[in-house]
Amino acid sequence: MHPRAKILKEHTDWFVYDKLHALTDGLKISNWSHFPIKRFLLDIRKVEVQKYLENVFESLFVEIGFELVKLDFLYAIYFNSQMSISESDDQLNKFLTDLKKRYPAVYTVACGCPLVPAIGAVDSLRIAKDSSIELYFPRWLGFLGYFINVIHAKIYLRALIKNYKERVWSKCIWNLDLDFFIFDKARGFSKKDLSLLLRLIKESNGNVFLGGDLTKITDEDKKNYIYPLLNIK
Q: Average pLDDT in the 15-36 region?
């Protein structure tokens, strides 16, 4: 929850606290590193929290009509020092399984999620780091432009290949999500890089969504990237 969320003021007992009675930040990478922004952790063990989340999803899927949901930062539950890893596994699996049972037609994409609790509980699993450069380099480095993009592209591809090799076996359990495929030349990916990305996405046989302004895609890019992605000749 956002630090200024109304629910934090009205239901302080719904949240997770540490031994010093400080709110637990769920938006972090590890116990030692944090994002500049904070999101405080709800205690999913509480019946009131479970009911609140049920109402949230009821609003999204029934009242509004969303047919796909990406559930991110699912590892946050493991920062609850009051729970063991085993209990966190069970709570996360229960949350995902109950959601899928209640809304079987909604396509679920789990992100930032340990593998074991997601088995049999989600349609798709994100297995790679973010491809967006904005998440890794501060905006003030933007003046370096293309040079920074090239560096990021190489770092991203190296990590993607490693994650892919370690987790491609799991495509028999869920659809793999390798994050989005950017073929904007200014992003620093060479034609060789893009061919590799395209091959990995096709080999993974996972999610294929189209986004961005499709009217601005050139015929050459459609032929080289969009049509092969969709198996259009």
A: 81
Helices (H) and strands (E) in the chain, counts: 8, 4
Whether residue 193 lies inside any domain: the answer is yes
**176: phi then psi, degrees, rounded to nearest 5:** -80, 145
d(CA 27, CA 75) in angstroms, rounded, equals: 9
Q: Which long-range contacts (CB under 8 A, 24 or more apart) does 155-160 make?
A: 156/129, 156/131, 157/193, 157/196, 157/197, 159/128, 159/129, 160/128, 160/129, 160/131, 160/197, 160/200
Q: pLDDT per residue over 97-127, tens digit each?
A: 999 999 999 999 999 999 999 999 999 999 8
Supply the pTM of this predicted model.
0.84
Structure confidence at residue 230 (pLDDT)? 87
Strand ranges for the chain from DSSP E: 68-71, 107-110, 124-126, 175-177
Domain that holds residue 222: 131-233
Q: How confident is the model at residue 91 (pLDDT cuts 50, 70, 90)?
A: very high
- Domain contains 98: no
Residues 154, 155, 157, 162, Cα dihedral to 10°: 140
